[in-house]
Amino acid sequence: MTDDQVFLGLGLIVVLAVGSQLLAGRLRVPALLVLLPVGFTAGALTDDIDPERLLGTAFSPLVSLAVAVILYDAGLGLDVSRLKGHNRRVVVRLLWIGTVLTVVSAALFAVPVLDMSMSGSVMLASILVVSGPTVVGPLLNFVRPSERLQRVLIWEGSLIDPVGGILGALVFHGVLAGDRPGFGRQLGQFAASAGVGVAGGAVGAGLLWLLLSRVRLSEELGTSVQFAAVIGVAAACDALRDDTGLISAVVMGMAVANLPGPDIPVRRPFFDTLVSLTIGLLFISISATVTPASLRHVVLPSLALVALLVLVTRPLVAHLATLGTDVGRGERWFIGWMAPRGIVAAATASTFSATLADKGVGGAERILPATFVVIVATVTLYGLTAFPVARRLRVLRPARSRPLLVGGAPWTVDLACALRSAGPDVLMWAGAAPERARIEEAGLKLAPGELLASATGAGAELEGISGVLLLTGEDDFNALASMTLRDTFEGPVHRLRPPSASQGVVAPYTGGEPLFGPGLTGPELTRRYEAGARVVNRPFDGEVPAGNELLFVVSATGRLTPVTGTGTAAPVPGDTLVLLSPPSRP
Q: Which terminus of the chain is less hemmed in, N or C, by CB atoms within 10 Å?
């Protein structure tokens, strides 16, 4: 290829990756639903974005290292303290039972249906073991099932990827060797690969721990250090033993997230941007290698394989994994209806299929197109049906709001009590010990000290927080916290209106929609409360009682709507009004 063709190809891949993610965001669908057809269509129309032509033999190693970065990011979200008891038992069972049953069922099915040799079908089945957090996570965030389901499925998706990657590498090398080693040897090879990956991950985590806890790094430099450590360790592990870099990446992420000392902010815009771009580039590049000719005789048999995996294998795995646990019937069936395939399956198929086809393995040329069809079909199916299925099984999070109230002044505690009695499940956070004691004395739920930080990322998702109300007496804190939260927390973020004449470190108008009507600033609320005003509930009877200030409207289902500077909530019969009453007259 000429330099002009390389420039055009690389530029087109980047533009298509970002453009597809932008379109998916506007359509509010998983990015994969746009990335795969766009990459396939572009690959069918032009050869300029064929990554094998652009990068040659470097394409496969680059894919492996890119997946390692994605898995490291997934590992950062795995808090070991959240996985215990029956949840841990379910995740472990999903991993090993799911691996065994998927390999056996898919391999036996692929031989007659896809007309593959046993070696080729076992290779395909090993690839289809994996799921992946990059697919499961967005689907769950859209569906919003119960916290338990989200936690279990995210853990399974994050841990099955490296397991499937190693299994695929073992099967690949066994097929190339032309022998069939016994179970003991297979287990030994798997243990050796796992040992190399864990050891490499431990070394990388130790290095990151020293740098991040002992050296003061800016967010940009801290991102660069993490990126370099993941790439370096994963490359070294892969050089020692194939595909062990995936394990090292997950181990590094989990260790850094759980070890005391490293200052890894939950909000990581630079690293998150890097991971998002990497996912887009991988999907566009890999799907561009799938040609229409390769799909001609594969689509219908692959859809039959999808039906087997979705309707038989996965439900059976879910029921066996949850047997003897406290997982409810609806939760069990939802776990059985959530196993989309993602980037690791595509990357592994792209890496191994061409080599096996060159070696004359029967049906190896069908591995990549069949995997492509399975990915598209499962993501589309689960993306369209997960929400109605979760609603039918009654495993969605409760409709009622769960606001996080930040602050512990007397009027704030009074407000929290009024909201709780109106229906919402109120959670509070405060930093000062007297304020925390006041919250506990009122019998309110007090969030742990780190929850406000975790509200900037996955922690808030897992805890089910529906919105944040910043009610402290420090306008600068409210403004800074709202700036941090508004770009990362998906729920609404509101803060107290600052006094018009206030001057501080942060401009009073910066970030966060102001709460309540004009004039109801923090100092004014405190003054009125000290004068005898109280927060009360009243059922809506057609009008707001005279002399009362409307603060919130709570629907019959417990959904909370605040009064803000941009508009007043419109109550309807059956709603509850949360009001600031005037001081009682002596």
A: C
Tokens of 290: 């799938």
Residue 26 is encoded by which pair of tokens? Answer: 């506007």
Contacts of 314 (CB under 8 A, 6+ apart): 98, 336, 337, 339
Hey, what are 410's tokens?
Answer: 């007397």
pLDDT digits (tens, 9 = 90+) for 409-456: 899 999 999 988 888 888 888 878 888 889 989 888 887 655 555 444
Identity of the residue numbered 169: A
Q: How far is CA 57 from the centre of its chain?
A: 32
Q: What are phi and psi of 158, to 5 degrees?
A: -75, -35
Q: For position 293, what pLDDT does the model report?
A: 84
For residue 311, what is the DSSP state?
I
3-state secondary structure 22-66: HHHHHHCCCCHHHHHHHHHHHHHHCCCCCHHHHHHHHHHHHHHHH
For the CA atoms of 333, 335, 340, 341, the dihedral, rounded to the nearest 10 degrees, stands at: -130
Pick the closest to residue 402 from 423, 421, 417, 387 (CA basis).
423
- The amino acid that residue 506 corresponds to is V
Half-sphere exposure of 163 (CA within 13 A, CB side): 21
Q: From edge to edge, which strands make up the β-sheet containing 403-406?
A: 445-446, 427-429, 403-406, 467-470, 493-495, 513-514
Other Cβ atoms within 10 Å of 40 Cβ, number: 22
Q: What's the farthest any 2 CA atoms get from each other in the chain?
A: 95
Which of these, 531, 526, 577, lies nearest to 411 by C-alpha position?
526
* Alpha carbon distance 95, 125 (integer Å): 15
Strand partners, 536: 579
Give the helix ranges, DSSP H, for 128-218.
133-143, 147-177, 183-214
CB atoms within 10 A of CB 527: 12
Q: Cβ atoms within 10 A of the Cβ of 80, count?
A: 12
Radius of gyration of the chain (CA): 27
pTM of the model: 0.72
> By C-alpha distance, which of 464, 98, 63, 441 is closest to 283?
63
Query: Kind of pairing, strands 445-446 and 467-470?
Result: unpaired
Neighbours of 504 (CB within 10 A): 13
Burial class of residue 540 (count of CB atoms within 10 Å of its CB; 0-12, 13-18, 19+) = middle
Tokens of 480: 């800074």
Structure tokens at 448: 């742990």
Which tokens is 263 given?
């200052």
Residue holding tokens 């394409």? 59
- What letter would DSSP give residue 371? H
245's CB contacts (< 8 A; 6+ apart) are: 64, 65, 68, 197, 200, 233, 234, 235, 236, 237, 238
State phi, psi for 303 to the nearest 5 degrees.
-65, -35
Contact between 100 and 108 (Cβ < 8 Å)? no
| Pairing of the two strands 534-539 and 576-581 | antiparallel
pLDDT in tens, 213-247: 777 777 778 788 888 999 999 999 989 887 688 78
Nearest-angstrom CA–CA distance, 445 and 433:
15
CB neighbourhood size of 191 (10 A)? 10
Q: Coil, helix or strand for 512?
A: coil
pLDDT in tens, 513-526: 688 877 888 888 88
